[in-house]
Amino acid sequence: MPDYETLETEGIRWRAVPGYRKTLHQVGADLAKDAVPSHWRSLKDSKRRQVYRAPIPGLGAVVVKRYPRKPGLPGTLKQWFPSRAGDEFKAARRFQELGVPVPEPVAFGERRVAGKCQEAFYVAAEIHGAAALGPSLEARYTAGDGNPWKHRSIVRGATHLCTLHEHGILHRDFHGGNVLVREAEGPAGQIWLIDVPLAVDLGHVAPELRAKDLADYLYSLRYVLDENEVRSVIHALPESAPPPEQTLRALHTKRRRGARSRSSRAIQGGSQFALEEVDGARVARDRLLDREEMQRLLNLHRDSMAAGSPSILRFGRKSCLTRHPSSACPEVVVKEYRGPNHGARGLRAWKGAAALRGRDIPTPRPLALVRATPSTFLLSEALTDTTPLHWRVFRGFSPDQLRSGAESLAQLFAGLIRHEVYHPDLSAKNLLVEERGTIQVVDWDGVQTLRRWTPRRISRALAQMGDLPAERVSRTTRVAFVRRFLELARCGGTTAWYLRHSARDLTRRRKIKDEALH
């Protein structure tokens, strides 16, 4: 690798690979005319950095990454330290020495005033025809489809990560958005690693850190990998990779931590969700549902409400539900929130659905949240072959069928406690039973993420579940169901402990539970 050369253009001091002097002079001249030249195309814009494609006449195009000065005291202190642009340049050159493919690093530059760095720039060669691996796979494949091209491309990216670990480098930010893929070369395309300023040379990477780096990569591809495909990718890695069991444990920890914060990030844009404004309404939309289809479903909902169509599922003062066929999925449920605080209620439901799905609690997939005036609309995937959980269906059921229903409900309750999620309204109308027996949770307005389940919350949830059998179900059936449920729903204590903390003022519930224990 040749050493870099130093040059200065328009107040920017560059350290560059030899041979790119003309390119940097043109970049400096463009920046001197305007803060962001009009002929540069924006690829990414955030508070921390902006990325542009800069065409250079006669020389092609380069990618320019700009790191602005941070505001406040952190930015003042950072001015005296090396910039992230310099860190990325050095890391990219180190990757090249190891044979790990990265876009050709051209230079990094700093604009300094009185010795303090005001802004920094990183310039790299453009990769033509390449796309980010994560969004590219999500647009074409689904989890569990077993596509061999998807498998090979993911394994190839993970193999490059293992190469870095072998040489003592910890990436720290390895995910599907920082891997470029171009399908023109090879059975799984050509792979490049980008955005590497956080890579650090430790000399030796401990197995725990290797597993964490790999788990971050697999977690970023969670929308295109199911559990079996994850295991297949892990077992296809070279011997230098951490043990599969260790990687799976790190991935489980990552999922749990990600689920804790997913409800607060449910309305942020990303590879799965798009944020936009449509006719003055703020929209958070799953990319599975395009804008035209979403608008069509909203129009169908309004027409159904005006005409009293049979597609209406509920007509209330605070909320209305309709069900319509869709091209995104077989059917979509549109829930309209009305009255005071309709926007806050809709937002709570959207975050509640994200919290449940993030913790693998069975629930329909939310597709879009439209915050408009005077109503807020929540679109979600409609479940087929499901019925509301009215426990009158247990009349005449065999003991095996009764036991199966109690087990499904107990598993749901245990999952809520294990993942620290609280649903204050687990009534029969908010639980749907699939043909295979899985219980799906709906009506997410009151869902809360907890640090711990208190005895009062546990007793309240148990009291609601103990009250699920309808009055017209025979007493023997109710007692058998509650007994089986209480045997299974032991999460850190005994059945007697739960009963002691149950709602004692509810005489009927207490009698049923007492009889179930004797």
Any idea what the shape is?
Answer: globular
In this structure, how is the largest beta sheet organized?
A: 7 strands, antiparallel
Question: Strands of the biggest beta sheet: in what spatial order?
Answer: 1-2-6-7-5-4-3
What's the helix count?
A: 15
Secondary structural class: alpha+beta
Radius of gyration: 28 Å
Q: How much of the residues is beta strand, in percent? A: 15-25%
Unreliable stretches: 491-506
Per DSSP E runs of 2 or more residues, the count of β-strands stands at 24
Helix content: 25-40%
Residue-averaged pLDDT, rounded? 79
Distance separating the two termini: 81 Å
Describe it for me?
A hairpin with a 2-residue loop joins strand 13 and strand 14 (281-286). The chain has 518 residues and is of the alpha+beta class. The protein has 15 helices and 24 strands. The chain has a seven-stranded antiparallel β-sheet with strand order 1-2-6-7-5-4-3, with helices on both faces. The protein has a seven-stranded antiparallel β-sheet with strand order 13-14-18-19-17-16-15, with helices on both faces. The protein has a three-stranded antiparallel β-sheet with strand order 8-10-11.
